[in-house]
Design brief:
This protein is of the alpha+beta class. The chain is built from four helices and 16 strands. 18% of the residues lie in helices and 24% in strands.
């Protein structure tokens, strides 16, 4: 059984016919997070508060959604569900749930009139709250329902929602520590890093065998159409989005570094990554469950590796 991060729940809403959906990650209280966008066409919500200098220090949930910018409204339903559980940033007149959203463009895959909204986000959030402690499932569901890759090559290949978890014992690196994860458990403490990635890239998924040069973009990715000169990107149905979660105890600034390392993972597993027609965005969150200091450079390497594995698990790898 795959080891899970305490207090983390992941739920989905999926429309099989319309090929779209959303995925909600609900974190335990006190989770810190930061993030970074490296693509040229992002669709995000509340990303500014992830800046390490912003006032709000914690995050309650992250929503990954299809539907392009329309799908960002799924976060409204997540906020409503979390408000009912009295979760959120405390203010004088009530708690305000902190919900970050990222969306990918899948309108051209299924039915463009069907998009994740507040109701659908609420469904996924309720499932996430009920799934705390359960293994995370990937595949053609949630935010990955309409995800495709390989448009650089002129045609789309189905991909999906990739999930990967890395578990490392820290006994050898901290032999004197007798601290166990918060919430109990026996044996030596275990560091857990999980990546959940909706892979909807303009480029290809690279398993390490594709080489360094994908060649020039091929029609219909780049073509001459009315009013558009050759060389203008016409396929904008892209963007890879995801979340890296660890049970380590690190700062919000450290989470920014983890997100940056996650983008290095995208660069290793997508060819090419971070194009002008991708809105690639990653959030890194740390629950602080593991009350043992962990070397940040090691943690960054594990975050990169988890993203690579998650992306490669999502679909085909051929040009």
């Amino acid at each position: 059984m795959t080891e899970t991060i305490g207090g983390l729940g992941v739920g989905h809403w999926t429309s099989i016919d319309a090929r779209t959906g959303c995925t909600v990650l609900v974190f335990p209280e006190g989770t810190v997070a930061s993030g970074e966008v490296r693509g040229g066409a992002p669709a995000t919500r509340e990303f500014a508060l992830l800046d390490p200098t912003s006032t709000v220090g914690t995050v309650d949930a992250v929503v990954l959604s299809g539907g392009s910018a329309f799908g960002l409204s799924a976060a409204d339903g997540v906020m409503s569900e979390l408000e009912r559980t009295d979760r959120g940033f405390p203010t004088r007149f009530g708690r305000v749930p902190i919900v970050v959203g990222m969306s990918l463009y899948d309108l051209g895959v299924g039915d463009p009139a069907v998009r994740p909204g507040a109701d659908e986000g609420g469904v996924a959030c309720r499932e996430a709250l009920q799934s705390i402690g359960r293994p995370i499932v990937g595949g053609c569901l949630g935010a990955g329902s309409g995800a495709t890759v390989g448009k650089w090559g002129g045609s789309a290949i189905d991909s999906g929602l990739g999930v990967a978890t890395i578990v490392e014992s820290i006994a050898e690196s901290d032999a004197d520590s007798t601290v166990e994860p918060v919430g109990g458990g026996t044996g030596d403490p275990r560091l857990v890093v999980t990546a959940v990635i909706a892979v909807n890239a303009f480029g290809f998924i690279d398993d390490g065998t594709l080489g360094d040069d994908p060649g020039p973009p091929r029609p219909p990715a780049f073509e001459r159409t009315d009013g558009q000169p050759a060389g203008t990107p016409t396929n904008r149905t892209n963007t890879t989005i995801g979340v890296i979660v660890t049970n380590a105890r690190v700062t919000k600034s450290d989470c920014l570094l983890l997100a940056q390392s996650g983008h290095d993972g995208l660069a290793r597993s997508l060819l090419p990554a971070h194009t002008a027609v991708d809105g690639d965005a990653l959030v890194a969150a740390a629950t602080g469950e593991l009350e043992v200091d962990v070397d940040l450079m090691w943690l960054r390497a594990l975050a990169q590796a988890a993203v690579v594995r998650a992306v490669r698990s999502a679909g085909a790898t051929t040009l």
